[in-house]
Amino acid sequence: MGQQASLVVEVEIHAPVDVVQEVFQDFPSYKEWSTWSIESADPTKEVNHLIHNDKLKVKIQNFKFDSTLLVSHPGFISETWLNKLWKNEPDVFEWNGGFGPLLQGAHEFSWRPSTKINGGTTFTQRESWHGWLVFLWKPGRIMGKKSYTTFNGFNIEVKKEAERRAAL
Questions:
Q1: In the sheet that 83-89 helps form, which strands lie side by side, from edge to edge?
Q2: Which domain holds residue 44?
Q3: 105 burial class (0-12, 13-18, 19+ CB within 10 angstroms)?
Q4: Out of the domains of life, which is the source (predicted)?
Q5: Beta bridge partners of 56
Q6: Choice between 128 and 60, residue whose per-residue pLDDT is larger
């Protein structure tokens, strides 16, 4: 499997968990408040109706890729290296993908009650990479730094939008 690297970026949000979950899962509104976009390739499907093998279109700032949705199944192992959504659960959204043995990553978003803000939420992005090129994603390396900045930027966008909605 080669080298491994991981990154965890969290933000504390002054909004309830259900508001943060709603903000994250409201893919159509991303264009109003985020530099990211996540959407179903089938415009008739909403996030809570996405099922095994549904396609996703993902844009992280200027990086675009298509993903295939895979709902979490214990012991399931992907036979391809395409991006696949492993989990679409009430508190976790995760896809897995990459470029064959060059680079694979599992990207997870989660939201849980905050232990720091009464009634607030801890929003977390977590990515674990492995493969031949993973050294570029190690802490302090160019892609590790870029990933941190990109993830932190999205977390701040989610925070601002969730706090705005919670104040309504």
A1: 4-13, 121-130, 103-113, 92-99, 83-89, 63-69, 55-60, 36-40
A2: 4-167
A3: buried
A4: Eukaryota
A5: 40, 67
A6: 128
pTM higher than 0.90 for the full model? no
CB 71 within 8 A of CB 87: yes
pLDDT higher than 60, residue 61: yes
Do the beta carbons of residue 24 and residue 109 sit within 8 Å? yes
Place of tokens 């939420």: 121
Task: Please state the separation of Cα 115 from the chain's center in Å.
Answer: 22
Pairing of the two strands 63-69 and 83-89 = parallel
Render the burial of 113-152: b for 16+ CB within 10 Å, e for the rest.
ebeeeeebbbbbbbbbbbbebbeebbeeeebbeebbebbe
Tell me what pLDDT residue 103 has: 84
H helix runs in 26-95, sequence order? 30-33
Q: How many domains does the chain have?
A: 1
* CATH classification at residue 112: 3.30.530.20
* Token couple for 136: 């570029």
